[in-house]
Amino acid sequence: MNRQLKRDTKVVCLADLEREGSRNLSKMIGEYYNEGAMDLITLNDNKAAYDRYSLRPRLCRDVCAVDTSAAVWGAKSTIPVGFAPTAMHAMAHPDGEIATSRADSRVGVPMILSHYSNSSIEDVVATGKSGGNPYAMQLCMVNDWDTNISILRRAERAGCKAFVLTLDTPSLGRRLNEHRNNFKLPEGLSFPNMPEDVDMRNMIQDDPRMTYMSSVSWDTVRTFIAATHLEVFLKGILTAEDALKALGTGAKGIIVSTHGGRRCLSAHVDSGIRRGSDIFKALAIGADFCWVGRPAIWGLAYKGDEGVELALRLLRDELQTTMWLCGCSTVHDITRAHLGRLSSSGEFVPLQPRGKLLPELHPASRAEQISQTTFSEKNKMMELESQVARVRVAAV
Ligand SMILES: Cc1cc2nc3c(=O)[nH]c(=O)nc-3n(C[C@H](O)[C@H](O)[C@H](O)COP(=O)(O)O)c2cc1C
Prior knowledge:
The active site is at residue 259. The protein is an alpha/beta fold. The chain contains 13 helices and 13 strands. The chain has one domain: Alpha-Beta Barrel (TIM Barrel), CATH 3.20.20.
């Protein structure tokens, strides 16, 4: 009585999905997906960061009609979460990103396709046509500018609603598992969003169409954004200083950052989100939307598109339960007042409402005013930055 639907015999949460999905992967592939850079300190901290916050439920709020949906890129998502770009889904399941896309379209959530996907942006977007869920293409800028622009144009033509520029990869992190396991692209797989004649199996590249552009500057970002009508989101921003820089580029939003009180930018967050209550906490702290990476892979490895759908439905069930218990009928009802933290003296302290961080800015004078942001405002941002869930992009 009063129990919720059991969706799978073995998997009732994402931790189960991680275990069951990973069982179906070889050591080389499993460690590529599940591990991160160096000693995995950031990777482990990503998940722990959410556990440092506790919920403050509010009672007697009439939650008969909880609505978990949220807006993203001019569309509605049934939950405030979508799939972040993760490379090479075909190593987890032969249908690769097409399977992920099928599940996304059935559940009605957005998907960001990785530059390093094994399916083309055209095929992936076409799979979701009936669902109406939005897609974005992601790019790590490479040294050959024409290659960057050709990926952008393909995304525009394919019907993407947004474009995600990953800025945290002037170089790849040092992933020890890849060295230990001699990681390589399995036979038969390719990167169809890259120029056809690049050597895709060469892991140590010198082809400018494949090598990361380590010279990317804020001017490069501005030039790229000016070349498209798509909404561009900058991914990998982790400091208030860089969030301020992003404001002047024409970007519509950032993924992973501090959540400045003033919203000239939409603030999305990813890394370490594994439960509906983590999504709730991220929204309470100030995120507009959340993304998950590895859960798509575990779902694929477990049961193809059904496994990916399971991941999304579990997150939705858990978010709905959290909203019920916290007395929130819509995602807009979720506030910082729903969270608290244990202080060093052992008291449980509710999170304080966040003040406005920057003055209201007229767009025309925004850049100038930002450069004049006072020292105390900057300090306040730095303080908030340390409070915000300390999400880190562990592996790209
Ligand atoms: C196996 C793997 C591949 C990834 N590939 C990309 C990529 O191609 N581009 C990118 O911007 N981020 C990439 N990421 C980072 C994800 O977009 C996302 O930031 C991260 O997976 C979120 O953390 P989570 O897996 O803890 O949910 C990758 C992450 C993983 C685990």
